[in-house]
Amino acid sequence: MRGGDRLLDRLRWLAWVCLLLSLPITSFPFFPSFAALGETLVRPLGLYPLVVLLLIDWIPYVLRGGRLPRILLPLLGFALVALVGTLLNLLQPSLPLRGQIPVARAFRAFGTLGLGLGFLLVTIRMLDSKAKIAASLRWLVLGMAVAVSWGLLQGSRLLLRWPHYAPLNAIQRLISVQDMQLYRVTGLSYEPSWFADQLVVLVLPILLAALVTGYRLILPRLRVPVLEIALSLVSLAVLVLTYSRGGVLAFGLSAGVGMLVMVLPRWREILAWLRGSGPEGVPRGARMRRGLLRSALVLGLAGSAVSLVAWLALRNQYFTLLWTLLGRLSNPTSYFLQLGAGTRFALAVAAWGIFSSHPWLGVGLGQSGFTIFQHLPGWAYDRIAEMTLMLSPASWTFPNPKNLWIRLLAETGLPGALLFAAFMLLTLAGALALTTRKDRFARFLGAAGLMSWVAVVVEGLSLDSFALPTMWIALGLTVCGIRLFIDRCGEALDTEGAPPPVSGDRPLLQ
Prior knowledge:
By secondary structure, this protein is mainly alpha-helical.
C-alpha cells in the first residue's frame, strides 16, 4: 500500500471513530450559519465526521463503480417514491403555516432523510470486515459509556441533590441547545426520550447480546464479563431515570423478544451452563461452586431489573398508569387521554386521516404539518391543554405526526410505506438468520440486531425524525452482519475462526 493510501485509510478511520464517539450528542449548538440548522432541534455532532467520510470515501467509491448492498434497494425505492410524490404535491402546494412554506419544509425533510441515509451508508462502507466491526463496537460503547456516566451524574443530582444543577447545566449547554431538565435525565442529548432511544436501540442491545451469546465485547481475557454486566446495569438504571415510558416499554419488549429467540432454542446448553458444566476432569465441588455463581449472576441481573421497575413504579405513578389503565384499552381515546399521551394520539389520528385522504402518494415528505389540524378529531380541541396551546393563533409551533410509521403513510402513501417496511422486514429476516449461525460473532450481531429492530419499531411510535443517527447505525450494523455471514461472499465466515480479509474497494454486494 502506498503512503498516500495508508494516510487516507488512517484519516478515514479517524473520522469514523469521531463519528462513533459523538453519537450521543444530538443537538450540538455550534454549527456554521450557512448550514441552516438554526431552527432544527436535531443537530448531531456526528454530521462533521459524516461529511468528511462522504467526501473522502463514499464519493470516490461511487466514482470507481462501487455498488450498494441489494438489501438497500427497497429503501432507495422509498426515497424515489417520496421524491416523486413530493414534487407532484408541490405543483399545488398547501398554504403557508406559521412562517413555514411547503418548499422549505420539503427541502428540510429530504435533508433529514439524506442525513439518515448518510449515516447508514457510511456504516455499511466502513464495517467491511469482522475485525472492523469488533473495533467499531468498542469505540461506540466507549462513547455511549461517557453519555451514560454523564447521565449517572444527572441522576445523582436528582436523587442525592449533588452535584448542583448550575455547574452541570453550564457543561450541558456546551454540547446541547437545550438546558438540562429538572426532574429527568437527558444524557448528552436534547431531551430524555432521545437519550432513552440511544440506550434501548444501541447500548443495551449490544451489551445484552454480548452477555447472552458469550461474546466478550470488552477485555476478552477476563473470565467473567464484569464490565459488560456493570455497564448494562448502569445503563438500565439511567434509562429508568429518564422517565421515558416509551423507552422502558421498548427495552422490555426488545429484551423479551431477544431472550426468547436466543434462549429457547438452546435451553439445554444454558441449563448445563447454569449447572456448572465445563472442561472434563473438573472436580464436582468446583462445578457446583461454578454453577452456584452462574445461577446467582443470572438471578442477580433479573432481580436488579425487577427491582428497578418496582422502584420506578413506587417513585413515579406516571409509569404505573401504563398497566393500571389497561382496562380502558377497549376505548383507546380514553386510555391515551388518561395516560397523558392525548396530544401524541390526537396527532397520530390526524396523520392517519391525511393518509386516508391521500392513500397512494401521500401529501409529500415534510408536508403533513400543513394539513394536520384539518384532520384532528373533535375531542382534541377541548380535552387536552397542550393541544389547546398548540392550536392557539399565538403559537408558532409547527405540528408533526410524532409517529414515524403513520408519518410514512401520510407523507409517502401506501407505496412508500410498503417499501420502507420491506427494508425493515429484510433486516429483521437477516437478524434472525444471523442468530442461527455457528459463528459466535454472527450470533452476537444477530441478537443485537434483533433487539435493536424491535426497539426501533417501538420507538418509532413516539419519534418521527429521520435525522437521529441511532436507528441508522443500528440497522447498518445488522446489514453489515448480513453482508459478511449470510450473503454468498460471506459463506466462508460461518466458522469460529477469523474471517478472510475483505477488500474495501470491491463492490459491497454484486
